[in-house]
Amino acid sequence: MYSSIMPDLIGIGTPPDRSVELAAKHGFAGVDLRIVRNLRWIEDYGCDRLAALMDGHGVRAGYGSMLTRTLSANDQEWAEVVDELPRIAAIARQLGYTRAGVVVLPFDDRLDFAANRRQHLDRLAQAAPVLADHGIRVGLEYVSPKTRRADAAFIFVHNLRMMLELIDDAKQPNVGLMLDSFHWHAAEETSDDIRRLQPEQIVVVHVNDAPRDTPLDELDIRNRELPGETGVIDLDGFVSAL
Asked: What is the pLDDT of residues 186-210, one digit of tens each?
């Protein structure tokens, strides 16, 4: 494992070149990039030039956002990204990215569990082989806080067990987990749950902390703390198990 940062996840909006510089300046071994969002920027800047900048700063590729933000994107948005995916994956691979990540929402307001499962499996069947052709694995992130699925019409995957079942059903060799300490904590999962995993099942890891004095049932994905800031999440146990 090595530490990698996506600056906009902590509220720092920067173009890719500045993200590389910030990662190097603050001691991160890698940089994560939203490749879809910055696709034209990267092409204008120059893929070779950006790769050289990363190499010059000694910054590795972490993981890239190469699909829609979630697998529940509307049909038009999904179709547009899938149409561009060979180009996106080729650029990502040229920059050294071999890992992608995407969120699985824990609810849907139109599709019941079975229909939503079919849509997720269909979309993974479309996207995963294209990424595999470029040597890229994709991690799926479950979202566990109850507040995120409160009042939803239909509940969907929202913990590690359910996510592993979805991944198994997908039958795509390059699909695994994007494991987030916040969701692991909110789902009341343990270090033993992590130890039961095989290394190849884990593609990406997110490390963050939870706020003090917030009951488990009231955790909100928009309100988190930097790693180790509060000690609410057992990050020692989380990282040690990994």
From this structure: 999 999 999 999 999 999 999 999 9
Distance CA 44, CA 169 (A): 39
- Beta-sheet pairing, 202-206 with 30-33: unpaired
First-to-final CA distance of the chain:
9
CB 98 within 8 A of CB 143: no
φ and ψ of 114, to 5 deg: -65, -45
E strand segments, 16-67: 30-33, 60-64
171: DSSP letter = T
Q: How many CB atoms lie within 10 A of CB 180?
A: 24
- The dihedral formed by the CA atoms of 36, 78, 166 and 32, expressed in degrees to the nearest 10: 10
pLDDT tens, position by position, 130-167: 999 999 999 999 999 999 999 999 999 999 999 999 99
Look at the pTM and tell me if it is higher than 0.85. yes
